[in-house]
Structures are given as structure tokens and as C-alpha cells.
Amino acid sequence: MSVTHESTIGHSRIKGGSERSFGFVFAIVFIVIGLFPLVGNWSSWEEIRLWSIAISVVLLFVAVVRPQLLAPANRLWLQFGLLLNRIVSPVVMAILFWGILTPVSVLRRIKNRDPLGTRFSPEVDSYWVIRETDAGSMKDQF
């Protein structure tokens, strides 16, 4: 058994948003879906998605009158978000690492850059950096 200073298991339970806010957000989403054909073409009133607007009205009504009815959908949405987090976060981090950090590191090695002076050199006695200017007093730093 390996003992570390910190547990890798989450310390607290993730709490989702309220059912009322869930209903309001999805009512807005379905209104946008319903009215989207009007974007850029105000003459296409017959292309409005009435089914989406009806869902939006129902969600808005339920969110105002009886938001606890939205609890199962809210929990399902939270679980879906957590699943996406477990998939998307590692993929994005891998893309950032292999797409940005690794090429920058390779280019710096090709150019022989050592900005921190950490490369080993057998001819130096010490790696201590001597300041050429006085840093002054540490009093009143801020």
C-alpha cells in the first residue's frame, strides 16, 4: 500500500445546480433552438420550430411552479457533465502538452537554450550566481 500526503479520491461530493435554474437554462436553450431559423432571415416565420418552443414553455412552467419534478433530469445532466469531464479534460491536456509544450521544448533544445543555467559544466567550481547589483533592503517590499 502506497501512502501519500494527499488522497487522490475527491474530498467532497459534487453538488449540481438547483432544479429551478436547470429548468430556466434549458427553457432558454429550447427557445433559442426554436427561434434559430429567424437568425438572418426574419421573413421565415413558418420555419419556427414549434415543438422546441412548446418544450421551452413547459420547462419554464415546471421550473416556476414545481421545480422538484426536474430533479431526475438535473441529476442525469450532472452525470453527463461529469462523464464529459473525465473524457475531455485528459484529451485537451494531452493536446496542449504534445501540441505546444513538447515542440517548444524540442526547439529550445535544438537552439541550446538554457535560461536557468541548469546544464552541468565540469569546469565550474560553483553554480552560485553572484548578483552584480545590490538588491537593497527587504524592508517595505510592497
Q: How would you explain this protein's 3D organization?
A:
- With 142 residues, the chain is mainly alpha-helical.
- The protein has 3 helices and no strands.
- The protein has helices at residues 19-35, 50-65, 71-110.
- Helix 1 (19-35) packs antiparallel against helix 2.
- The longest helix has 40 residues, at 71-110.
- It is elongated.
- It starts with 18 loop residues before the first helix and ends in a 32-residue tail after the last helix.
- The mean pLDDT is 86.
What is the tally of helical segments? 3
Overall geometry: elongated
Q: Please compute the radius of gyration using only Cα atoms.
A: 29 Å
Measured as a percent range, the helix fraction is 40-55%
Average pLDDT, rounded to a whole number, is 86
Number of strands: 0
Unreliable segments of 5+ consecutive residues: none
Terminal-residue CA separation: 46 Å
What series of H and E elements makes up the topology?
HHH
Which structural category do the helix and sheet elements fall into? mainly alpha
Strand content: under 5%
Largest β sheet strand count, sense and barrel closure: none
